[in-house]
Amino acid sequence: MDERNGWLNNLKVGDEVAINVYKNNNWVVKKIKSISKDGFRLEGNYPVWNDGTYMGNYVIYPYTEKINDVIEKSELIKVLSNYNISRLDIEKLREIRRIIEGETK
Fold first, then answer.
1. Model-level pTM?
2. pLDDT at residue 103 greater than cutoff 80
């Protein structure tokens, strides 16, 4: 039994899995709602086959810290890009500049 099949066979109701929705790091996390002989049902009633495929195109993966970091980074970029920084005081703006300049050097 390969590692992936072992992981899939050990999933339980309530476990969280990740789906790479558009295959470009747009991850969605869902809990396993039920398990049958044919596969899984994820919350939202999404069917997943025993081989871990979802709707033919997508594959479920273990929900890891690395995937969580990708999701959080995407959310932070969205929040920060929509934030009106003109409301910040000068010290916070300087701190942001120091962080940005430190990353680009």
1. 0.74
2. no
